[in-house]
């Protein structure tokens, strides 16, 4: 009885470990993330599905109202890091293409799942959102 219980416990632990290791990794991250807050819609779009380590990753950040009119922000910042990893947080370079349209560029250092954190200051309010992406 003790042997059977020990074997069953090992099987359950093995299945749980396999699930934990693959959860979040099996499905590709969205290429686009949107939020709407304080009458502002923030749309972040990864420009490529094949981002490579130590190469530029480019993200389009668009700010609009509910009707789709572009709105300028007083500040747009982006940082990126690997969730559950301790390899640091990196700053992306953000440039304004035109009012309400921005380009964020960063260079992820290794393969894996990453998360960009975009912070927008609009009408003296700070709005932060996250956008997942993967480096292959």
What is the topology?
Elements (H helix, E strand, L loop, with lengths): L1 H21 L9 E6 L2 E7 L10 E8 L10 E7 L7 E3 L1 E6 L2 E6 L5 E11 L2 E11 L1
Antiparallel strand pairs: 1-2, 2-3, 3-7, 4-5, 4-8, 6-7, 8-9
Protein name: YtkA-like domain-containing protein
Keywords: Signal
Describe this structure in words.
With 136 residues, this protein is an alpha+beta fold. It has one domain (29-135): Immunoglobulin-like, CATH 2.60.40.1930. It has one helix and nine strands. The chain has one helix at 2-22, and strands at residues 32-37, 40-46, 57-64, 75-81, 89-91, 93-98, 101-106, 112-122, 125-135. It has a five-stranded antiparallel sheet, with no helix packed on it. A four-stranded antiparallel sheet has the order 5-4-8-9, with no helix packed on it. Strand 1 and strand 2 form a beta hairpin. The longest helix has 21 residues, at 2-22. The chain is globular, with a radius of gyration of 20 Å.
Order of helices and strands: HEEEEEEEEE
The proportion of residues forming helix, as a percent range, comes to 10-25%
Report the uncertain regions. 15-26
Please tally the helical runs, counting DSSP H or I stretches of 4 or more residues.
Answer: 1
- Approximately what portion of the residues adopt beta-strand conformation? over 45%
Q: Ends: how far apart?
A: 47 Å
Total number of β-strand segments? 9
Largest pleated sheet = 5 strands, antiparallel
CATH architecture term: Sandwich
**Could you name the CATH topology?**
Immunoglobulin-like
As laid out across the biggest beta sheet, the strand order is 1-2-3-7-6
CATH superfamily: Macroglobulin (MG2) domain
- Spatial shape: globular
CATH class: Mainly Beta
Keywords: Signal
Protein name: YtkA-like domain-containing protein
Signal peptide: 1-20
């Amino acid at each position: 009885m003790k042997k059977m219980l020990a074997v069953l416990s090992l099987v359950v632990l093995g299945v749980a470990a396999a699930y934990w290791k693959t959860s979040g990794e099996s499905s590709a991250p969205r290429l686009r993330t949107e939020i709407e807050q304080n009458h502002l819609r923030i749309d972040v779009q990864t420009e490529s599905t094949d981002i490579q380590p130590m190469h530029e990753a480019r993200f389009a950040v668009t700010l609009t109202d509910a009707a789709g009119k572009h709105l300028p922000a007083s500040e747009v910042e982006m940082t990126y890091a690997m969730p559950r990893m301790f390899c640091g947080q990196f700053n992306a370079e953000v440039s304004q293409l035109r009012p309400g349209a921005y380009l964020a560029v960063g260079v992820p250092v290794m393969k894996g799942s990453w998360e960009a954190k975009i912070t927008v200051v609009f009408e003296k309010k700070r709005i932060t959102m996250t956008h997942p992406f993967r480096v292959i």
